[in-house]
Amino acid sequence: MLKILIATLLLFINFCHANLLQEAINKAKEGSILKLPKGVYKGKITIDKPLSIIGKEDGVIIDGLGEGTVVTINSAYVTLKNLTIQNSGSRHENVDAGVRIENSQQSEISDCIIRDSLFGIDMATTNNSIISNNNITSKSLPLGLRGDGLRIWYSNDNIITKNRLVKSRDMVVWYSHGNQITENYGEHNRYSLHFMYAGKNFVHNNTYEFNSVGIFFMYSKDTIATGNVVKSSLGATGMGIGLKDVSNFTLKNNTVIYNAIGVYVDRSPFEPDTNNWIENNHILYNSEAIHFHSLSENNVIKQNAIVGNIEDIVNDSRGARTHQNEIVNNYWDNYEGFDRNGDNIGDTPHKVYQYADQLWVYNSDVKFFYGSPVISLLNFLAKLAPFSEPVFLMEDTQPKLKQ
Prior knowledge:
Keywords: Signal. Helices cover about 10% and strands about 40% of the residues.
């Protein structure tokens, strides 16, 4: 009798520790749909065949038990939907994630909650797939120690839409082309959206706030960013939208507001005989509206509303050649000219100079006092009676008088 009780107990223990969901996946035929009822499914799983796993109701939880990546996908035509995926491992060198999808195509991850996972979704060499309407948070760690909420590597022609990334590290799009990144939201991250060596992406109607950097494009080309809202990028070097070594970019109809730096331009356009177009944007109430670093010429900056910024144009290097950009038909709230013929174009150009006594442009410690009455007074005195010949930065030959 005792032997029977021990055998039964061992069988019960083995049953409790068995990964029943993985067993169901292993037994399922290709193309099967596993509809899961509410409950906690413990243990990480691997999907290596075309398969759909769908929560029939809210409260379907796949718990990785703090070890490795929770869901690993190594197949095309896989769908995860209406699941809560949680509790990955904590090893950066292993890229422990809520979901890792690799070497896939025409797959979908949607309507999922991914939480308490070091990395959210790690996506590599995956094309023509959909990542939509997911809520992603990292582990409760300092900002630099979190993993990326969404990491897209060597993945092309995907739709990334309506995801919410909060308190992760970055969303990165590296070596990836032709992706549509639309209507996503990010807050309290480092880089809410970071591109590197990526081209022909479409970035539309995303909202990013309270991050270190909103959107940053590096070493990329042929991308359109339109209708995005980037606000309240934190810290003395907080940035709305950044362009570094990029060519043939269009920034249009974006709103960049309450950042330390609104738009940052560094050696862009990068390729010879190319342009970038910065048009119809609202650049509002930033410490610096447009900041030029290094050689940056042949940008077309027109029909933007530049309002309420402490500095409209900043050039932190002598070689930036800001005056060799095409800057025309913008609205500047600091313009001091007239419009005698009523055509909504100023009678004289709007010229911007940099004064040698504006030390806060070069000294990050002094930026702590941006917006204070003493800085406003120093600004006024520098323009009224400069101590040295000011440096000409740029002119708008046809400034608008009304927005």
